[in-house]
Design a protein that fits this description.
The chain is an alpha/beta fold. Helices cover about 25% and strands about 25% of the residues. The protein contains six helices and eleven strands. Strands 1, 2, 3, 4, 5, 6, 7, 8, 9, 10 and 11 form an eleven-stranded mixed β-sheet that branches.
Length: about 270
């Protein structure tokens, strides 16, 4: 921790921590088993950052096998109070073109059987999910994108699917008709578990594709893993630039809905 505020946590691809200065590798044991990887603590633009590759150092963990509880717990253990979770996503709207950054403010959970709470009893705890993403961090990220002339949409709904398969055409039509903006496989429960520990969490979704191809856009082929990863890699420099620009402006955790998440959540007998 330093004068510029608390340690900022970042989940992302394993290539990111190579851009940190003075990196220290910190293994963390958790009550929920091993996290995806050791946490790397270093500096970006003078700001202390804790980084973890959510899919593991060699990208060996598919979305449904990530130990999300261990990952979030480990971040808190090293002193993180605010987390940024960049991810790849598919677009469900023609105007959200590949290369666009979406700062999501809502999620819809369509996952199956993921461990998604720290509160298994005996103390009953119901945390409000009305606004699951940190508005303050989201605003900071969107402003940094605008300053860098990166196409960004502030606000949007991500529908989170189990993976590892992509959507069927029928599912994609359903998500689009319902009004969702992007589709992803990792935002839930990563985002939600941060709120359960009263941590701030903001998302940067990088649009890599048009899901299975949108209605009225017959020229767009269904997404493939190769194509999505290629677009993501092509945009890594812009994602790094965005994070480097935004990090110095991220202050200590305010007394907001994130920090006070547990104030009215515990059921007293």
């Amino acid at each position: 921790m330093d004068a510029s505020g608390e340690l900022i946590g970042i989940f992302g691809g394993s290539g990111f921590y190579r851009f940190l200065d003075d990196v220290e590798e910190v293994p963390v044991a958790t009550p929920y088993g091993p996290p995806s990887a050791a946490i790397r603590i270093g500096r970006v633009e003078g700001r202390q950052v804790a980084f973890m590759p959510r899919h593991g150092d060699e990208h060996t963990l598919p979305p449904h096998r990530i130990n999300y509880r261990a990952n979030i717990w480990a971040m808190r253990e090293v002193g993180v109070r605010r987390i940024i979770g960049p991810c790849a996503c598919g677009s469900l709207k023609p105007e959200l073109e590949p290369g666009t950054f979406v700062i999501c403010d809502q999620f819809v959970d369509r996952t199956i059987a993921r461990e998604s709470t720290f509160y298994d009893g005996p103390q009953t705890t119901h945390v409000s999910a009305a606004d699951p993403y940190c508005r303050d961090l989201g605003r900071t990220l969107a402003q940094a994108a605008r300053e860098l002339h990166i196409p960004v949409v502030e606000g949007g709904t991500v529908v989170v699917i189990p993976g590892p398969r992509f959507s069927t055409r029928a599912e994609s039509r359903w998500y689009t008709a319902t009004g969702f903006d992007v589709v992803n496989m990792t935002q839930y429960p990563e985002c939600w578990l941060a709120r359960e520990l009263s941590l701030c969490y903001a998302n940067v979704s990088l649009v890599t594709d048009y899901d299975v191809g949108l209605e009225g856009m017959p020229h767009v082929p269904p997404v493939s893993a190769d194509a999505a990863l290629a677009v993501f890699r092509d945009n890594l420099d812009r994602l790094r630039a965005l994070l480097f620009r935004a990090l110095p402006g991220m202050g200590t955790q305010p007394d907001d809905v994130c920090a006070s998440a547990l104030d009215s959540a515990i059921v007293h007998h």
